[in-house]
Q: What sequence folds into this?
């Protein structure tokens, strides 16, 4: 079995309940590695563990586990300077260093050693230069060699420091219900809540007579892409037919606002059933007609649950960049018949009156619409 380390940062500043976050992270790691993870120990804000199998696959799994700041394949060595030097020189080769500059970075948790971290880096670096003829570049090296000497007579060497997603382990911050559309924004908002430790359940409102049409669409692909970040996902599919039947009773310019009111009320009732404590939206202030401050206020007035809008201050280009980074952008731009496009009118209301929205809600029989829609929801589980 190979030895790896996963380092966290934010978890390390937690107080007496830090162990709860650590245990959640370890549980998520074991689930993501699907039985490949062997012996494990916690040591100085790091998790060291053995794992068997394809190294590239293991690293790919670690790259999607929230709570991990960085990770690496590591090697445990004796803590004496001569032993560390001997291992590093045996591990490197002239071919591996060809055309590459080096930098040795050392950390010394054991302050009782007869040398400083800087002296250790200098001496090991000099030995590498002498044997392989490599050049040192402390600002922009082609290869970094990391040495970490822990307390309790433990020392480790690694030749990489791969960036993880950071944040908090999924499941450590409770459960939320997220609105998932076919656009670019909503998957990014869900990802951001996962990164804060929330377990995210999805709700997608679709325009199809048969929910299987939604299951076969790009929505299943988007859900699967997001599910990789939290070890699976539950996706509730609700059709908007009950709402559509009542649209003739409302002014056309208010149709989009009322549709948004409908999906939030639907999300609220579903959140109660799911044991979720908040609803998540991909709104960005002022980006489209339904996301003006007046409309957001009118749509959410009297709402029982907190509504998280992690994208509220981001512009479209920033959201698109993040979507590309997390792997949902190309899926989101695929063609899809989204409900919002079907209820959009040429001149939608941008300064909705909250009292008037409530009157329209009563006139439509919104409570009955939500109840009937809830009764027809289809659920799929995505891994």
A:
């Amino acid at each position: 079995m190979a030895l790896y380390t996963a380092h966290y940062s934010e978890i390390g500043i937690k107080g007496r309940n830090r162990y709860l976050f650590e245990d959640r992270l370890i549980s998520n790691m074991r689930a993501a590695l699907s039985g490949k993870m062997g012996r494990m120990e916690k040591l100085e804000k790091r998790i060291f563990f053995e794992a068997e199998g394809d190294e590239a696959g293991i690293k790919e799994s670690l790259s999607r586990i929230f709570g991990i700041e960085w990770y690496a394949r590591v090697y445990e060595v004796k803590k004496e300077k001569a032993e560390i030097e001997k291992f590093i020189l045996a591990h490197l080769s002239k071919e591996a260093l060809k055309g590459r500059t080096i930098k040795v970075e050392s950390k010394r948790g054991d302050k009782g050693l007869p040398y400083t971290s800087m002296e250790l880096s200098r001496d090991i670096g000099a030995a590498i230069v002498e044997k392989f003829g490599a050049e040192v570049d402390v600002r922009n090296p082609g290869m970094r060699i990391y040495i970490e000497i822990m307390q309790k007579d433990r020392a480790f060497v690694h030749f990489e420091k791969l960036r993880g997603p950071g944040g908090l382990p999924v499941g450590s911050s409770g459960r939320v219900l997220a609105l998932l559309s076919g656009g670019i924004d909503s998957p990014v908002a869900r990802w951001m809540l996962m990164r804060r430790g929330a377990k995210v359940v999805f709700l997608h409102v679709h325009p199809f007579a048969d929910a299987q049409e939604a299951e076969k669409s790009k929505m299943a692909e988007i859900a699967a892409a997001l599910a990789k970040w939290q070890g699976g996902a539950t996706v509730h599919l609700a059709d908007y037919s009950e709402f559509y039947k009542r649209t003739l009773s409302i002014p056309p310019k208010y149709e989009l606002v009322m549709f948004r009111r409908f999906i939030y009320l639907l999300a609220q009732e579903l959140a109660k059933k799911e044991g979720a404590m908040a609803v998540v939206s991909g709104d960005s202030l002022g980006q489209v007609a339904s996301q003006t401050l007046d409309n957001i206020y009118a749509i959410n007035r009297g709402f029982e649950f907190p509504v998280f809008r992690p994208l509220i201050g981001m512009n479209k280009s920033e959201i698109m960049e993040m979507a590309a980074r997390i792997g949902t952008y190309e899926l989101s731009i695929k063609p899809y018949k989204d409900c919002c496009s079907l209820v959009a009118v040429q001149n939608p209301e941008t300064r909705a009156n909250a009292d008037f929205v409530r009157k329209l809600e009563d006139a439509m029989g919104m409570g009955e619409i939500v109840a009937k829609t809830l009764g027809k929801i289809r659920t799929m589980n995505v891994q």
The two ends are 27 Å apart (CA to CA). The first strand starts at residue 2 and ends at 7. The chain has a mean pLDDT of 94. The longest helix spans residues 255-274.
